[in-house]
Amino acid sequence: MTGLKKSTIGIFFILLIISIVLNITIGAFSISFSEILNTLINPQENKIYYQVLLDIRIPRVALGVLVGVAFGISGAMMQTLFKNPLADPSIIGVSAGASAGVVIFMLLGSFLPTLLFDGFLSYLSLPLSAFIGSFITILAIYKLATIYNKVAVTVMLLAGIAINAMLGALIGLFTYVSTEEELKSFTFWTMGSLADGDMKIILTMIPIVVITYIFAIRKKVELNLMLMGEDEAKNSGVNSEKLKKLIILFVSLAIGTSVAFCGIIGFIGLVVPHIARLLVGSNHKFYLPLSAILGAFILLWADAFARMIIAPAELPIGIITSLLGAPFFLWLLIKNRQNTMN
Question: Any idea which fold 2-341 has?
Fold first, then answer.
């Protein structure tokens, strides 16, 4: 059985590598694999292809992989934290919290010191504000949903709906007071896109995603024990309160940074962990790596469809992931309802 799970992870990893190569060839005009190799080996022969690959295609695909891994791992940890397959950054308001953090920063921009808008500090202000927004949101939802050390799923979903509505009103206020140019930019950003990927964003995302993944893998035994119940985890020596706080911290960091750079991309954190669980079970030794791989795999192909459907223009990736995820979420609700009735 262990060999089969490892083989499943290996197969999807190979599929991810193939997907990365294929996605580099997809765009407003196609570039064959041989042309990619030739361009990278001899950049002077075709400067246009070289610029397209280095400035657009490769950073976009790299960003898709990093954000996909971030959502996959974060969704898996959140579903373990809440002990429920319905937990997802977009559904319970975490993505909205991150975007609200960005909105508040934009609204307060004129009142903040000029230093915050100069150089490297300006670049960090966006992910930092998104991180703070997502951290406060997860913490608030977890506190509201925890009753006698158990998470009430109904309360969690209702709290997520309420916080989503409140943050939606805040975002609506921003769109009301913004200029026409800001409105266009912000509306497209809220729908999610990988179009703004560049090396500066990639280099910012890499350490955050790597640290989040390492944390999750190192805590795989504790996460397995948490699934068995907090009492069982405590009896086995797990500091459950510290672990919960660390999960909230790392999920906030990964989701906040992803939302800051790519906008709101819904349902990846819901769909991916569930598929991974169906394929390899709930053991985090296999469940976490497959969630990371599937997150990158699904997000890359969602972005590919977003670019191909109305080429040479592109749809916001959030529309594609919502079309995929919303029916899946309804199916999960129906399944849980049937299980409750039985």
Answer: ABC transporter involved in vitamin B12 uptake, BtuC (1.10.3470)
